[in-house]
């Protein structure tokens, strides 16, 4: 078998697994907070990731797309595709803001420093990277992904078996997560799972479109999307059960994975905090780069000035808090993702109908 499907799968997973996932906050809000039924939600999201990954990779491969704009144009037409692209860019900026807030939460929870310190530090690093083109740093940070995943899985699996909380107490604790966020109540686990898949697809759509376009074999591309989606489903499932087993200790915690790491060992907690900072940094650079590139050509003076301005604005907005921003920005981004899901589903249905019609004509 070709290595291409596995490369696509790993890239797909790397896009989706950012600071919000590794911190445990995303999974806590969109799955664990619903109680034991949240496990069913992880299965729904996993299936959606597999289907959507297959569709995006296959479409971009058949179009030989060099940019996600080509896929959007094929789905919605040029004008509507441009509108979706602009809205998507705006919310990607919101994800960058969430990453700045996440950095502040790590320094506050792990090191007892003001959240503003972590936000300012990450902002400086992001601006320096965008202005100085420190590409080697980004490559180095991306290499932390396997270490981060190993840490998260080790911590959650250990926490699951070490937990002595009763199922009754855990279900009681889940009642305190009745809504995903203030102002955006999501009272049903299925809607939470659908929103989680949709906002993540919106975030990963641009890069997955480019990666799928690198291969001319549509079947290999589709297989890569499926494998990546299944892998994501497994990771979400494992993290969810680890968090649920300790839910009574996680109410109001900004960085659930970090708290579980502290219970395991101070050294593991230190390693986890550093890995989270690296992952959040990598995600923030990607989001602010994509947003700034909409208004200026990369590596120009205008691009550098705008990157400073946009990051500074993001720092101000990040003071609303990590968990509050995840519960606000991500569901809104999820609406954009839902539009993508509907368009991809319609495209899949249309392609299958046309294939059946061609088969019927050839049989005569």
UniProtKB/TrEMBL annotation:
In the UniProt record, does the keyword Lipoprotein occur?
Answer: no
Q: Which UniProt keywords apply?
A: Membrane, Transmembrane, Transmembrane helix
- Superkingdom to which the source organism belongs: Bacteria
Q: Which InterPro entries match?
A: YkvI-like (IPR038728)
Q: What is this protein called?
A: Membrane protein YkvI
Where do the TM regions start and end?
34-59, 80-101, 113-132, 139-161, 189-211, 223-247, 267-291, 303-322, 328-348
tRNA-binding found in the keyword field? no
């Amino acid at each position: 078998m070709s290595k291409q499907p596995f490369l696509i799968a790993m890239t797909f997973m790397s896009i989706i697994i950012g600071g919000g996932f590794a911190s445990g906050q995303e999974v806590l809000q969109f799955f664990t907070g619903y109680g034991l039924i949240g496990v069913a939600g992880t299965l729904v999201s996993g299936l959606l990731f597999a289907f959507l990954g297959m569709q995006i990779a296959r479409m971009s491969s058949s179009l030989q797309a060099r940019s996600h704009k080509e896929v959007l144009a094929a789905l919605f037409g040029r004008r509507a595709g441009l509108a979706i692209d602009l809205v998507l860019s705006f919310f990607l900026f919101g994800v960058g803001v969430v990453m700045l807030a996440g950095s502040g939460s790590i320094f506050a929870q792990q090191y007892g420093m003001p959240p503003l310190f972590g936000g300012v530090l990450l902002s400086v690093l992001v601006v320096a990277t965008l202005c100085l083109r420190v590409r080697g740093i980004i490559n180095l940070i991306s290499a932390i992904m396997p270490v981060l995943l190993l840490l998260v899985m080790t911590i959650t699996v250990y926490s699951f078996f070490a937990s002595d909380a009763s199922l009754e107490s855990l279900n009681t604790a889940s009642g305190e997560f009745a809504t995903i966020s203030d102002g955006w109540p999501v009272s049903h686990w299925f809607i939470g799972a659908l929103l989680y898949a949709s906002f993540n697809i919106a975030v990963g759509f641009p890069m997955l479109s480019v990666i799928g376009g690198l291969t001319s074999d549509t079947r290999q591309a589709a297989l890569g999307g499926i494998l990546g989606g299944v892998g994501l489903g497994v990771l979400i499932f494992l993290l969810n059960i680890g968090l649920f087993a300790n839910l009574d200790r996680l109410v109001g915690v900004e960085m659930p994975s970090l708290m579980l790491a502290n219970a395991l060992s101070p050294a593991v907690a230190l390693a986890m905090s550093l890995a989270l900072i690296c992952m959040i940094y990598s995600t923030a650079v990607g989001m602010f780069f994509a947003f700034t590139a909409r208004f200026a050509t990369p590596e120009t003076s205008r691009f550098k000035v705008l990157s400073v301005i946009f990051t500074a604005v993001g720092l101000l907005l990040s003071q609303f808090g990590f968990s509050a921003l995840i519960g606000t920005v991500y569901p809104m981004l999820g609406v954009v993702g839902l539009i993508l899901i509907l368009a991809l589903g319609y495209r899949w249905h249309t392609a299958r109908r046309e294939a059946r019609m061609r088969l019927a004509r050839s049989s005569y």
